[in-house]
Each structure stands twice: as structure tokens, then as C-alpha cells.
Specification:
With about 160 residues, this protein is an alpha/beta fold. The protein has helices at about 1-15, 30-40, 55-70, 85-95, 110-120, 150-155, and strands at about 25-30, 45-50, 75-80, 105, 130-135, 140-145. Strand 3, helix 4 and strand 4 form a beta-alpha-beta unit.
Length: about 160
């Protein structure tokens, strides 16, 4: 009886741990970028595209996780270019980088070229790909690993200081 009670207690603790609360990645399909832009209109945010198989992406996730701790109100939206079937691995990777509370999406259209073209016609699939959106909707795009100093400066100089 005691073992059963202990097992239930362990299960309850596991289910209520912060990592267990992470939502599954939403499917990123045609029109998802507009949904993201509408949802965050008027607010600065970081939109990052990454993949499980990309070593530079993992380094960038480490940086973003570190900055998320430094700037707790920093808004980060992450889109994995993997597949929905890899949702558990995506969630685990984001949890490992302290980004499990970030808004998360995953490519869910088999025609990834078409999705990338809808996002940015000048993006040919290189990863990581990061967009720094200002509150007015303008953005700066970065292909490859983003420079930590440049990103920190962007966060510090936001006009409305929402990242602090």
C-alpha cells in the first residue's frame, strides 16, 4: 500500500513539474507567420527558426535561454523546421535550454520551401535564422548564429524597454 501511495506521489510531482507544463509545438503552416505577427503586434519580439540537427542552432538556443534569464520579459517565438513527429525531442531540447515556456511552433507542411518563401523570399533554408521584430513591425534578419553583444544591445535599446 505504501509503495502504491509513493508511486502516485511521484507521478503527481512529475506531472506538476515546470517542464511537464510545456505545450506541444503548434503546427506552422501557411498563414502561421501572420498569426504570430498579429498576436505580437505592437510588441518587440524575437522569432527564431532552428532544427534539432543544427549544431549552430543549439548554440543559439543556449544564448537565447541565457538572455531569457537575464531579460525575463523578453518575448521569444521559436519555430522548429523539423516535423511534428519530433515534438517530444523539440520539447526536450527547449527544456534543456530553459526555453520551454517560449511560444513554440513546428513546420507542419511537407513543402518546407514554400513555407520559407512565405516567411522571407530571401531565406534559402540556412539555420539558425533569426528575426528581431521591433514594436513597429520592422525587423532585422540574421542568418547563422546571432552575435551575443548585438542581441544584448538590441534588447537594451528597445524603445519601450519591454525586454527588461
Amino acid at each position: 500500500m505504501m509503495r502504491l501511495a509513493l508511486a502516485w506521489l511521484c507521478a503527481a510531482l512529475l506531472l506538476t513539474s515546470p517542464g511537464a507544463q510545456a505545450a506541444s509545438p503548434r503546427p506552422f503552416v501557411h498563414g502561421s507567420l501572420q498569426t504570430i505577427l498579429s498576436r505580437h503586434a505592437g510588441k518587440p519580439f524575437i522569432l527564431g527558426f532552428w532544427s534539432l540537427s543544427c549544431s549552430h542552432c543549439r548554440a543559439e538556443l543556449t544564448l537565447l535561454g541565457s538572455l531569457a534569464r537575464k531579460f525575463p520579459h523578453m518575448l521569444v517565438v521559436l519555430v522548429s523546421t523539423d516535423t511534428p513527429e519530433e515534438g517530444a525531442a523539440i520539447e526536450a531540447t527547449l527544456r534543456d535550454h530553459s526555453l520551454d515556456t517560449s511560444e513554440t511552433w513546428v513546420f507542419a507542411n511537407p513543402d518546407s520551401d514554400r513555407l520559407r518563401y512565405q516567411i522571407d523570399r530571401h531565406w534559402y533554408g540556412e539555420l539558425p535564422r533569426t528575426y528581431l521584430y521591433a514594436a513597429d513591425g520592422t525587423y532585422t534578419s540574421v542568418s547563422g548564429r546571432i552575435d551575443e553583444d548585438a542581441l544584448s544591445q538590441w534588447l537594451l535599446h528597445l524603445p519601450d524597454r519591454q525586454a527588461q
